[in-house]
Amino acid sequence: LFPGGRLPLRIFETRYMDMAKACLKDGSPFGVCLIVQGKEVGEPALPAPVGTLARIGEWAMPQLGVLQVVARGEQRFRILEYVGGYPFLAARIERFEEVEGRDPEIEARFMLLRDRALEAIELLPQAPRELGDTVRGVNSAAQLADLAASTMDINAGEKQEILETIDLPRRLDRVLEFLNYRLSVLRLSRELGEQTRGNIEKRQREALLREQLQ
Question: Are 2 and 52 in contact (CB under 8 A)?
Answer without folding.
Answer: yes
